[in-house]
Write a sequence for this structure.
């Protein structure tokens, strides 16, 4: 077993363990904090995949904005269900069964695919992934239209969020 | 080296954990937490396919960035809805939010 494999297994176990805590903890503030550690594990996974820009954006946008937004929302709605009462609905075992079945189905689909045991090819010398990504995002031949549509979606979502949560009294 | 299958199985496990959270939690905010886990597992898959395929094709990373934008939009609207419902009905339990039940 090589060093890269050991690092991957440690990161994956850390991420999956925190993910399990997110869906099982009773206290929702703790669940939001476990989400931060899950997101950090995913950022390390991006770094292992040489996707440096994605790793940075994961930390800045997901941990810095989305997870903090979750903590705010948990604290604003905390009066309702503090730590007493069941946190899972009565049919939680059906959910567990469906999740296990989905995982089994994904494994079944994966094991029939020929490209499964591919290993990483070396990145070509002089290849700068971040500048290539920047060019791809604004080049008319590549992804400028999805990029602009995503920005319109963000503006619409932010205006909609302000409208929905606005207190008219 | 780490084969591609490890990343795919890792992402599938994270997706299943998130799916379990979405299906079993009673609190609407906790359901949104599960959706975040599922979106993250998709991003791991996209980044892995970019790295193990042709590195000069940036489509995998561009898709992951668009998933980031969609996740941010989804969380902002979802949490605004939860807070608005909490203000009117004083509940965040998904079973009790049945005003639109026909």
């Amino acid at each position: 077993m090589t060093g890269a494999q050991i690092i991957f297994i440690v990161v994956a176990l850390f991420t999956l363990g925190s993910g399990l805590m997110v869906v099982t903890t009773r206290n929702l503030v703790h669940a939001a904090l476990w989400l931060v550690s899950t997101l950090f594990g995913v950022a390390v996974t991006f770094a292992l995949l040489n996707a440096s820009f994605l790793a940075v954006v994961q930390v800045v946008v997901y941990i810095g904005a989305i997870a903090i937004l979750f903590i705010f929302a948990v604290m604003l709605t905390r009066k309702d269900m503090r730590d007493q009462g069941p946190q899972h609905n009565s049919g939680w075992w059906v959910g567990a069964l469906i999740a296990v079945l989905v995982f089994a189905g994904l494994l079944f689909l994966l094991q029939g695919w020929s490209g499964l045991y591919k290993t990483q090819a070396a990145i070509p010398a002089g290849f700068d992934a971040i500048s290539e990504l920047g060019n791809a995002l604004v080049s008319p031949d590549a992804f400028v239209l999805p990029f602009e549509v995503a920005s319109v979606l963000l503006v619409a979502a932010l205006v909609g969020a302000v409208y929905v949560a606005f207190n008219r009294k | 080296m780490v084969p591609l299958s490890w990343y795919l199985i890792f992402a599938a496990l994270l997706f299943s954990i998130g799916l379990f959270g979405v299906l079993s939690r009673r609190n609407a905010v906790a359901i949104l937490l599960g959706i975040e886990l599922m979106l993250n597992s998709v991003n791991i898959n996209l980044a892995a396919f970019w790295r193990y395929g042709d590195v000069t094709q940036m489509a995998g990373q561009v898709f992951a960035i668009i998933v980031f934008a969609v996740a941010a939009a989804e969380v902002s609207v979802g949490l605004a809805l939860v807070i608005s419902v909490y203000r009117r009905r004083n509940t965040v339990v998904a079973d009790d939010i049945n005003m639109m039940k026909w």
